[in-house]
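Before any further analysis, we paired sequence with structure tokens, yielding the entry below:
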Amino acid sequence: MILATTQQHKDLYETDYHLWLVETAHLLETRQLKDLDIEHLLEEVLDLGRRDQRKVESLLTRLWEHLLKLRYWEAERSFNQAHWRGEITNFRIQIRRELKISPSLKRYLESIFEDCYQDAIQIVAQKTELSLDVFPQKPIADLELVLNLDWFNI
């Protein structure tokens, strides 16, 4: 289905998002640029960047959670340490892959590094029932060390 007008294409964004994507791809492929819904297309392109940011932010927070559990949750360490280490490796690999594809995301990770650490402290304190005082207020390592595949003994 090829739409006749830009307005119809804009309306499609609100009524059938998937079809809007298909139509937009077709318009781009056939270089029918005048018929593109530029406003929504720009919104979608910008959202791709935000989605990547949210993904690495989530991965970093989860990485911190497992690093903190490994270091501070002594009551469960002997039972869960292998699992936590596996998760640590998994999150590190995923973050490194994202950074390989989009190296500029490293600046973003650096800018949210402490926030992710603070979020992880809150989460781990709840899960472990440990006092917030158990955890250092500042990150216990820098980004390079946290992403280092060989660094477990923190």
